[in-house]
Design goal:
The chain has 2 domains: 1-60; 62-99, no CATH class. Helices cover 49% and strands 10% of the residues. It contains 4 helices and 3 strands. The protein has a 3-stranded antiparallel beta sheet with strand order 1-2-3. Strand 2 and strand 3 (85-88) form a beta hairpin. Helix 1 crosses helix 2. The model is unreliable at 104-110 (pLDDT under 50).
């Protein structure tokens, strides 16, 4: 049997959690699991956990981030048959402050 890469390991862990779950708790537990069981750093584990939960949340979602149009200052989200949405860093920070459901990135993720 082959070992899972860190992103697959994060997705596999999150899929085993009972639903519904609080996102912050799931991210903390997944990060701890990756550090302990997959011998990776806290920052690598945290990033993998955030990416995995985002991937799982967007399954069967027709919207996607246009990586070619996205820059370090703006994220472009495309939805079939609709105008593209643009989110500046300021927009994203405002959304984060309103929601407080996804932990702010740690210094190692920037």
């Amino acid at each position: 049997m082959h070992a899972l890469n860190i992103n697959d390991a994060a997705c596999a862990y999150l899929l085993k959690l009972a639903r519904p779950y609080q996102r912050t708790v799931a991210l903390e537990r997944c990060t701890a699991h990756l550090v302990e069981q997959h011998d990776c750093s806290q920052s690598t584990a945290s990033l993998a956990a955030i990416q995995a939960i985002a991937e799982l949340e967007t399954l069967n979602q027709p919207a996607f981030i246009d990586a070619d149009a996205t820059t370090s200052h703006v994220v472009i989200v495309r939805r079939p048959g609709m105008k593209a949405m643009a989110f500046s860093v300021a927009d994203l920070l405002r959304l984060h402050a309103q929601e407080k459901t996804l932990p702010a990135p740690t210094a190692g993720l920037q």
